[in-house]
Amino acid sequence: LAVAAMAGPTTNRDSSVNQALKPSQWLSAQQLENIPAVDELLSRLENMSLEKGAELLQQVYHLSQINHDVEPNYVPSNVQVYVPKPNGDKIVAPINEMIQQLKQQQQQQQFGQDEVTIIVTGLPQTSETVKKANRKLVQAYMQRYNLQQQQQQGQKYNTDSSSEENKRQRSSSEENYSEQAKNANTNTGDIIVIDLGSTLTNYKRYAMLDIEKTGAKIGKWIVQLTSELQLPHETIHMIGQNVGAHVAGAAANEFTRLTGHKLRRVTGLDPSNIVAKNR
């Protein structure tokens, strides 16, 4: 009887509205909240009139047809980029302004003379653990490239001055980061840090990050970087951390798609399991 009532003109609503699969178009927030759970549905129907029961079943039916798949749609704009210098200073600029800054450095023969390592962070530096891991990674490459003198170590990139902290065992991530630098094939170079992690200020942004589109934007930027600064693609090494590892891979693919060339190397550190399972 309920099914028959659903098929009949039991309400004054327009049929096109009734058949819409977006609840906000035909149900108020209060009506949505009042729809019972499945285990309560039968008992609720027993105490309803035929017309009211049919209306409730119609609402439940439409809700069951909604596609619950969520597509990632967050693409950060104008991510901050910084380039650490031998004296401990940093060149900091939005990504769309950094190439111009690097041109000035290149004219002074202070950039792009050898390998260029591009690091894509993947976690916000809201915890000391993440800050320390990022600092250790940059520090390891600075040391490897001989850009940081022995007496400057620990001033800008190592704030752990207490003996107790120095005795703590390094995390596996930090050891992996340092090991990557030790295995580098060159002794000189420059570092560019694309601080994607700083834009992921909450879990929603992290979960909804569009890996492919974000990576494509960075890939196009690397094409512009190598073109305007005349950097050989064979000297570019990309490193991605956590979700940044997946973005780095997408960026390298976009670079290859646009140029027909492959970057020298792409390294993923601690890639995100969430992203890996959904790809």
UniProtKB/TrEMBL annotation:
Similarity comment: family membership: Belongs to the AB hydrolase superfamily. Lipase family.
Protein's cellular compartments: Secreted
Statement: the UniProt record of this protein carries the keyword Secreted: yes
Compositional bias of kind Polar residues: 174-183
Protein name: Yolk protein 1
GO CC, one annotated term: extracellular space
Domain (Lipase) ranges: 118-276
Chain positions covered by the region annotation Disordered: 148-183
